[in-house]
Design goal:
Length: 145
Amino acid sequence: MTRAWILPIVLVLCGAALATGLISSGSPGTATVLLLLFVTLAGVNSPLVFPRSISAPEAQRRSAADGRPVVYWRPGCAFCLRLRIRLGRGARQMYWVNIWRDPAGAATVRAANDGDETVPTVVVAGRPHTNPDPAWVREQLSRPA
């Protein structure tokens, strides 16, 4: 759980330290802009941007029942963030598994990627696809199960 928040916390702390230095040197406007930038970066890299994660067995069970894709991801992953942003509201139609919170999800990703925890790994109809094009994933969402 805490590993998912390390990057956002570090970003906020760095932003606060830089802003404090700028305020003490007489640049409160620049400090405010910089702090807002760091807080935004922290928010984008936090688990809050992604739909609620579920366990890998639960995601697999639900996917088998309704045919929706399963996305294995981890916080701080730029490619996961790109997929999430490019999917827009469609991201809520998929099942998301945070591999840092779920050992079974991490094992599934390693099995699909020759031992590497490469994310995002999207499983569609039982077949894993590593770092797929978001347009392709969107297309899979529009197909009937």
